[in-house]
Design goal:
The complex is a heterodimer. Chain A is mainly α. Chain A has helices spanning about 15-50, 55-60, 65-75, 80-95, 110-145, 150-160, 165-180, 200-235, 240-245, 250-265, 265-280, 285-290, 295-305, 305-335, 335-340. Chain A is built from 15 helices and no strands. In chain A, about 35% of the residues are buried. By secondary structure, chain B is of the alpha+beta class. Chain B is globular and about 80 Å long. Classes of the chains: A mainly alpha, B alpha+beta. Chains A and B meet through helix 2, helix 3, helix 5, helix 7 and helix 13 of A and strand 9, strand 11, helix 6 and helix 13 of B.
Chain lengths: ~350, ~525
Amino acid sequence: MCPPNDDLGTHKGRPYEFIMKTYILKRLLLIVPMIIGISFIMFIIMHLAPGDPASMRYGLNPDISDSARARFNDMYELDKPVLYQYVSWMKRFVRLDFGNSFIDDKPVMAKIFSRLPATLFLQGLSLIVILCIAIPIGVIAAVKRNKPFDKITTVLVFIGYAMPSFWLALLAIYFFGFKLGWFPISGMDSWYTEYLDPFFRIKDLLWHTVLPVMATAFTGVAALSRYTRSSMIEVLNENYILTARAKGLSERRVVIVHAMKNALLPLITVMGLTLPALVSGSFIFETIFSWPGMGRLGYEAILNYDYPVVMGVGVISTFLTLFGIFIADIMYAVVDPRIRYGKRG
Amino acid sequence: MYYIAVASFLFLFEVSVLPENAVNTSGDAYVSAGIAEARILIPFLSTDSASSSICSLIYNGLIKVDKDLNVAGDLAKAWEISEDGLVITVYLKKGVKWHDGHSFSAEDVEFTFETILDPGNGCPYISGYTDISDINIIDPNTVQFIYSRPYAPALLRLSMGIIPKHIFKSAKDIKNSLYAREPIGTGPYIFKKWESSRYILLEANQEYFEHVPGLKYYVHRITPDKTVQFLELVSGGIDSMELNPYQYIYRSITKEFTSQVQKYKFLDHSYVYLGYNLQDPLFKDKRVRQAIGYAINRKEIISSVLLGLGEICTGPFLKGTPYYDETVPGYGYDTKKARHLLHEAGWRDNDADGVLEKDGQEFRFRIVTNQGNQVREDAAQIIQSQLSELGIKVEIQVIAWAAFLDQFINKKKFQAVMLGWTLPVDPDCYSVWHSESIDNGGLNFISYANSEVDALIEDGRSEFDVINRAEIYKKIHRIIAEESPYTFLFFPYAMPAVQKRIKGIKPAPAGISYNFIDWYVPEDEVRYKF
């Protein structure tokens, strides 16, 4: 999907900044044909699926006249050939116009932007929670390898990883929301926040956030802590750690300054790949927690054959995935001297 | 020349405007649960149930359906139908105000129906109004509809919500106008706030012409997951939801539930059937269809699939209305009769392999149904096992709704379908049973054609008298039941559950929500106070 980092080394004799700039430019330009290709495939697959938006909307309703279906198809040019439709979609897309939703005629961009904050908020918080919990667990487990802490966390992490996340979310709702009544069962805020003071509004929002963040962070913690652990173990076996220890540095300094800095480098890739998830959200959690985010928007659009919204959400996710990979690669070069200097001619 | 159909609500109306008659206004809120978001709050453009139910609180039609499913006045004080059925004159209630303070008048009525009839506005219900040839304003409180032919369902079509002319007259595109999402109506509730995919908040209309609604706030809250919805109901986060049979029987016996929530049940306005493609050679013979009717044990289906929460259906009208003929015997479970009919039709098990044959063909067919409806899937499986006892091999195919419509229904490429119909209050069934509806976008996808039924359907459409209409539709019921193009299975119950603190609920044939504005919460039980 992206050219290997070796590219950096091919421009012999050029200054580093210049190489970096052309590389960045090349990578950015590559995103354009990629988006065109992926959007084309998405468009075709969507239209190949049996069924059509008009029958989803008006199917088997005796009160609705046939002319309504014809008019609907006519209005959105749904009776035209697929290629024609793709071209007219593309023409609007280059002007950043994603069209209007078939469901409620609202502009796709407006729909996306009304859902985006909720998803960013939930996924962002859960990412912070994941990082704060997973990294210490992983590091400690690596340092105390095969000790009780490592063994216990390994078992817990595998349980966490193997558990279906939606089931976990339902359990959390059942115990903490329903049985104990500590947290609200679902929703992002109460409908009556309108009538509350700003302070209570924020409290209400945070209160509603606890369970969804817990549930979405759980699998993330499991995965990332394993990742940190293995990366850390690898680094701890390196010769420079041996050197550091031989110099007589404290174990604390060896682990935190010498080992952790290097062990966490691969996390940049992981973070780069979470960028799209940060924005596209999770359909399952958003449904269970009645969270008004992007995951539900995309899913509902697919169920209703709402082509403009499906394309809008799809293209934005594609772009962010490509952009995330791109940022991760650049960050690598920026933070890792081995990549930056090692490959210079 | 005219006969006057002034209903008894006239008296009720006169009484209810008196302030002493106002019901308890508790100030509490009612939080309803929906799985999907409303789409557009313009009555004649909304096709989803969330939008329609919210529209019904914000807008009024000229006519409404009362608790016994009779026609009653809403914005109309009275109406007259000319003897030839071509003129309906509607007298409007006086002093009705829009939520923004403007007075409601006949101009709004004229504007609404002219907007519906303008094809440019894309009203999906337009075909129900195309017989209106003219709308005349007699005076600010009287409006006259002229029809090009007598059309009995026309009266109930006047229940469509009336929109304000002063708001929409300058709107170029109604569906994209601001007021399609921040509506102004005449109804008992005033639009307050719409938080996309979270909730819609309405506030009681303190000037409502009937009386001030008992509950001050109405909230439509989105909870897409049904399991979570149930937990919200029991813990009090929402005030009502629709239960499924399993929840009704097994999940609602806990103390947590019974101490707080009241459940109700009444016949849902829908039925489930097994429909045969009459163009398929297998089902051309009436005796075969009747045999299947006798071979299916509906009682078993109702007791195992619906846990007893349904009633046997024998025909295509709503049970409990004058149009449903209770005397139609239907097809009781009788395998002997079924075997006899199949034998008569030439189906025999000559090679004793347990499957019937005729002309070297085995009796096998496939039932198609849509995904996501557990009741239909389960019922199809029971039918499969019941028919196998007679030597009929049934396959079941469950397929997603869009593909189901596209590949089977619209192309008429199926042998049998398991489906249901929602029954409107008006019994007109042209689009489902008339032979003209086999094509032309009609819903007679099983290709049922019977000239006698066609003629009766046409008569029923032009007859305004309820007693005469009842005779017509009962006859249709008898013919269709005898010919068995569908095997009618059951009417399921609707099973809403509502928090006990909400009082004033009186279940009736129309359900429970017909008197929503009379619901209230006693002062000491109010949950939401601001």
